[in-house]
Amino acid sequence: MSNSQHTPGVVPGRLPADTLADNFTDLHPPLDGHEAAVAADRCYFCHDAPCMTACPTSIDIPLFIRQIQTGTPQAAGRTIFDQNILGGMCARVCPTETLCEQVCVRETAEGKPVEIGRLQRFATDQVMAVQGHPYERAVRSGKSIGVVGAGPAGLACAHRLAMKGHDVVIYDARAKAGGLNEYGIAAYKSVDGFAASEVDWLLGIGGIEIKFGQVLGGELSLTALSKTHDAVFLGIGLGGVNGLEISGSDKGNLRDAVDFIEDLRQSGDLTGLPVGRNIVVIGGGMTAVDAAVQSKLLGAENVTIAYRRGRERMSASEFEQDLATSKGVRIIYNVMPVALHGKGSAQEVEFEYTAEKDGKLTGTGEGFAIAADQVLSAIGQIIKAPDGVKIERGKIRVSGAGRTSIPGVWAGGDCASGGDDLTVTAVAEGRDAAEDIHAMLAGQS
Questions:
Q1: pLDDT score recorded for residue 1
Q2: Tens of pLDDT along 147-192?
Q3: Homologous superfamily of 241-377
Q4: CATH 1.10.3720.10 given to domain 33-128
Q5: What pLDDT band is residue 3 in, cutting at 50, 70 and 90?
Q6: Angle at Cα 134 formed by Cα 130 and Cα 136, nearest 5°?
Q7: Which of 71, 124, 275, 422 is the residue whose CA sits 20 to 30 A from 359?
Q8: Strand 381-382 vs strand 391-392: parallel, antiparallel, or unpaired?
């Protein structure tokens, strides 16, 4: 239990259960058959489709939309899954507004793109609703691969390797599979336990075993894994968080936004989840927005996101920033925290305005304070890398399709260099590493 739960003003049950249920419904409700047909009809089916280039997994978007238009959504779903086995979750959480939909010709011409994300969800839901898994394993190869991390990268890697006939063991530190899809995404983006059901569906390929409670550097060592398996893939994500190093950072009601979101995602009863009346979220990424919006939906009266640079520099997209403000969240740009003030627990956060001079961020000397009974820090995560792998700019250095500095060891997803911390990118890197691993194993045999 977090210390913040003992802080005056941080209490459960700010809103009744029925209101909370309404607040945490699907952000983008699914399309029905007629709506999907109408949405698909807007596509120009470009020969040189920019949306495909913008998709990190290179899904043939014009093809799957054409398949929906012609009344074959099962085929459309298969087209998506061929490239992105977690296409169902990506349809829900992908920032399509900065990827495929941003470059859609309809967006360029009319300011309203084809609803690619919702069409992808329609198609993938059709396939997942049918009993049985759509893919079969190849003949067993006799090879074994160890995958560390049951997040998007690890799951994508494991599924592709299982398809190739290899046996896969996934090791994960937590009690559930899914990684950030299960623990770290806003609840209104993935409702009705979809993350868990998607994992169960993916495992239907066979040949994949998951061992929980296995911590790399604890129960597991990379050396032992390399001896046990013919290859190892690291999809360990970013396990640590950056600390907020300011005066008063020992206050009891300061906590990591990542932990706050995890508690919410794993809560069986949102009426029992404590939340403050005045909340300040420090950071500018998706985690900051998810924490702030969900705080508001839980019943917090005043929620503020404070970001040290300008709107255009926030890693959270404009869509997400606008979503936050539409829910009543205030965003203050160009400010940095200086101190938390209060006896025992914080009662206010002191800020200083910032400015950029010659590319360097500096304080202006002007300041102000915001009342807060709960402070959530979302200033980035750090990797807990295993011994022996080379690190580059805080991530595992990889080359090609995820090859690390250690022969026989690959890495992908948030823990690896070159990625952009998106679920869809993690899937692409896990998939591509699996193909490279398979080619290596095929060459050995």
A1: 39
A2: 999 999 999 999 999 999 999 999 999 999 999 999 999 999 999 9
A3: FAD/NAD(P)-binding domain (3.50.50.60)
A4: no
A5: very low
A6: 145
A7: 422
A8: unpaired
